[in-house]
Amino acid sequence: MNKMDKITIIEPKSIETRSFEIITEILGDRVFPQEQQGIIKRVIHTSADFDYADNLVFGNDAVKAAMKAFQKGCTVYTDTRMAYSGINQTNLAKFNSQKECYIDHPEVAEEAKKRGVTRATVSMEKAAKDEGHKIFAIGNAPTALIALYEMVKEGTLKPDLIIGVPVGFVNVVESKELLMELDVPYIVAKGRKGGSNVAAAIVNAIMLEGLKQA
Fold first, then answer.
1. Span 193-202, pLDDT tens digits
2. Which residue, 30, 82, 66, is CA-closest to 207?
3. What's the chain's Rg over C-alpha atoms?
């Protein structure tokens, strides 16, 4: 059989719909809490990795807390420009919300070099000083998660939600475990998997769920 004979031609606008149908079929009779299933499926759609059906952990009414933050208007802070770019600006505007990434600001780089810490650490400290409701979407830097953990423990930060999905090998698992000790809303990808694309997908999925309920 010619390989082209195996290709299904689908209209561009129908590709995402069909993708989610395939994901649902593969998940079979798996059942997830209503507020979580859209997020889990979108992360699988983004990564093509079904492990996320098992390793995404939602703590302290994470989705409800995020919905409330968006309804009030919030800022989503990321640790990478990739995650920042991946968050849907149109939907953010519908919630009168915004996104921010301080990782490449000159003063952040200068402060990090002076103190001998990562730019991710300093960017989180800078974000914590901003006013308003805050969601943190961390997909790359475990040092960002560690900085958030320390500020929450010190009482200098009360985030509406922390998305902790850094990917990698050094301090990744440990930073996620620290986050899950906190009494704040969180969504964590247990283990080494994650990434900026996953962090953005979670934010986008939460907003889509919120728009459905509006």
1. 999 999 999 9
2. 66
3. 18
Check 45, 94, 105, 126 and give the catalytic one. Answer: 45
Distances (CA, A) of 68 to 97, 176, 177: 12, 24, 25
> How far apart (Å, rounded) are the C-alpha atoms in residues 88 and 156?
29
Query: In the numeric block, which tokens belong to residue 127?
Result: 């974000």
For residues 212 and 67, the answer to whether their CB atoms sit within 8 Å is no
Quickly tell me which residue has 């149908």 as its tokens.
21
pLDDT tens profile 76-121: 999 999 999 999 999 999 999 999 999 999 999 999 999 999 999 9
Helix (H, G, I), strand (E, B) or coil at 189: strand
Structure tokens at 118: 């990562």
Residue 152: C-alpha distances to residues 32, 148, 155, 158, 165 (Å): 29, 6, 5, 6, 18
- Whether 193 and 179 have beta carbons less than 8 Å apart is answered as no
Strands (E), 72-180: 74-78, 98-100, 133-138, 161-164
What's the order of all strands across the beta sheet hosting 133-138? 56-59, 186-189, 161-164, 133-138, 74-78, 98-100
Q: What is the token pair recorded at 85?
A: 């770019």
Confirm whether 133 is a catalytic residue.
Answer: no
